[in-house]
Amino acid sequence: MITRYVWLLPLDIKIKPNGSGLPGIGQLRSIVGASMTIGLIIAVLALVISAIVWALGANSSNPHLAGRGKLGVLAGLIAAIVCGASVALVNFFWNVGQAV
Questions:
Q1: 2 part of a folded domain
Q2: Per the domain annotation, does 68 fall within a domain?
Q3: Does any domain span residue 72?
Q4: Tens of pLDDT along the chain (100 residues)?
Q5: Separation CA 33–CA 43 (nearest Å)
Q6: Of 99, 94, 100, the residue nearest 17 (C-alpha)
Q7: Which domain holds residue 53?
Q8: C-alpha pair distances (Å), 21 with each of 16, 39, 51, 83
Q9: DSSP string of 40-81, one letter each residue
Q10: Number of domains in the chain
Q11: In whole angstroms, what is the distance from residue 52 CA to residue 30 CA?
């Protein structure tokens, strides 16, 4: 009885993203691009400030301050990697999902 209903399911569904299906898609792309730019600028600012904190901590023999600076540099680098690679990561996982 179950096998009879399986044949009623559509077997070949093909849906692709539509770049012009809704109004405002161009503006949304512009907003996302500007957000990525702001994210990269903030990551660079965090990297510079953290490097200064690291240098001050190392030169003043303050291991807590130096450790915080190192952690900030690492966080700035990871944030820059994620902002820069976000489009490639989304495209990669989109393609993986399409292959399933």
A1: no
A2: yes
A3: yes
A4: 555 555 566 667 777 788 788 888 889 989 999 999 999 999 999 999 999 999 999 999 999 999 999 999 999 999 999 999 999 999 999 889 888 7
A5: 15
A6: 94
A7: 33-100
A8: 11, 28, 46, 27
A9: HHHHHHHHHHHHHHHHHHHHTT-HHHHHHHHHHHHHHHHHHH
A10: 1
A11: 33
CB atoms within 10 A of CB 48: 13
Token look-up 């660079």 returns: 44
Backbone phi and psi for residue 19, each to the nearest 5 degrees, phi listed first: -80, -10
Structure token pair of residue 60: 């003043």
Q: What is the pTM of this model?
A: 0.73
- Beta-carbon contacts of residue 4 (< 8 Å; ≥ 6 apart): none
Q: Shortest CA distance to 39 belongs to which of 84, 8, 70? A: 84
Q: Answer yes or no: is 22 within a domain.
A: no
**Residue 51: CB atoms within 10 Å:** 15
Residue 86 burial by Cβ neighbours in a 10 Å radius (0-12, 13-18, 19+): middle
C-alpha to C-alpha distance for 7 and 38, rounded to whole angstroms: 51
